Amino acid sequence: MAKAPPKPWPTGEAEQIEPLVRRVLAPNPSPFTYTGTQTYIVGLGDGCAVIDPGPDEPAHLAALEAAIGGEHVCAIMCTHTHRDHSPGSRPLARRTGAPIVGCAPLAFDTAGPRADEGFDPEYAPDRVLADGEAMSGPGWTLTALATPGHVSNHLCFALEESGALFSGDHVMGWSTSVVVPPDGDMGDYMASLQLLHERDDRVLYPAHGPAVTKPRQLVRSMIGHRRQRENQILRLLGEARQQVGELVAQMYKGLDPKLTKAAALSVTAHLIDLERRGLVVRSEDIWQTS
């Protein structure tokens, strides 16, 4: 996990990062959002799409409106429904009249402690994009790529005209994604990483952190990192039956206490995947190799 760059950050500024793409950083930095959520505006002139409008934060919405100016908004597109990604879709839709398009809504009980921003229960898309479906506007086409794992409804969006992929929280340059059961699934996450590794995207634009200019190299290292964690768990459980907290203490030495819950949830996601594959078993909260 990389440290945030020194301030000032370009919060609220519209940055032109390639001819069809502008980026606006929301003022919601945290240990889980890095410097904040990055909203992307795709298209210039006759019509645009807004990807991951971010939190329902007045300053961020004002910055988006300033960046859009008088341009027609064709769609407001969400990669997934964490609270730092999709709540801004509703006020932006009211202001622009644009439809909310992208991932499916989630409906399940989110009670209990969580290590991320939590889910947006009011997300209500006008159109859900299935894997391979596209949204288009003047001079641009965004194709949905189903990438479950971080959450079950996660989508990436491929900008066909430039070879860029908006990767949401699935792949980020500053940190690996938190996979939080029960909706987050480590097996799905690994399969989605493999899917991206087999693509030839030119650049990834994540919702948090810098652009990824060597996508296949980074994704390959992320797959290796997760396999290393998996092997570490199997080795530790081969030595002794253990609880999740005991595993975390051995696997994440020197971890910032703020991130302990996230680490525990990540380990739990690995354990559930290993259990499904018949490599570990549990008795109440004690895990061991099978």
From TrEMBL:
Metallo-beta-lactamase domain span: 36-208
Pfam family, one: WHD_BLACT
SMART domains linked: Lactamase_B
Domain of life of the source: Bacteria
Entry-linked InterPro entries: LACTB2_WH, Metallo-B-lactamas, RibonucZ/Hydroxyglut_hydro, Sec-metab_biosynth-thioest, WH-like_DNA-bd_sf
CDD domains assigned: metallo-hydrolase-like_MBL-fold
Protein name: MBL fold metallo-hydrolase
Organism the protein comes from: Qipengyuania benthica
Highest classification ranks of the organism: Bacteria, Pseudomonadati, Pseudomonadota, Alphaproteobacteria, Sphingomonadales
